[in-house]
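Recall the central idea of this unit: under ordinary conditions, the amino acid sequence of a chain determines the structure it adopts. In this exercise we apply that idea directly, starting from the sequence alone.
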Amino acid sequence: MVERIRPAETGDLNRLVEIYNHYITETHVTFDTIPFAVGERTQWFTQFSESGPLRLLVTEIDGVIAGYASSSPFKPKPGYSSSVETSIYLDPGYIGQGLGRPLYGRLLEELRGEDSLHRAYGGVALPNPASIALHEQLGFVRVATYHEVGYKLGRYWDVSWYEKD
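Accordingly, the structure predicted from this sequence is:
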């Protein structure tokens, strides 16, 4: 098994949408509720670059994209520009193989060098012990829990927010 972490490329978009759509239709970890067509994710994809605070990395196993991690604007208002929201999504077939920590860690490592960046935030829809553990292992600290903030799959869900300097 050969693992490679690299910046996402245009040709990766189909696979990234496939991975994310699984979480839309099968889980509570994202509050999107309708799967995306690839064309609908083009604008999302074009916000990322290989430098700056908005990054998108993929992890490949033997040439197959197994997951991705990204940093997106925390909020659209200019005063929030020194903060990003980070996310990670793995193909369900690759969960539990130790890919999350190196991928998410690499994203955070790259962000650490950004002078314009002050904090990273990650939201975790509860329950999700694996995501909580990953965030805590990488130095995030829980700062808040929003109770029943999201509704999906016929019920309300809490979301805990984690931050990292």
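Strands lie at 3-7, 56-61, 64-73, 83-90, 119-125, 141-152, 155-164.
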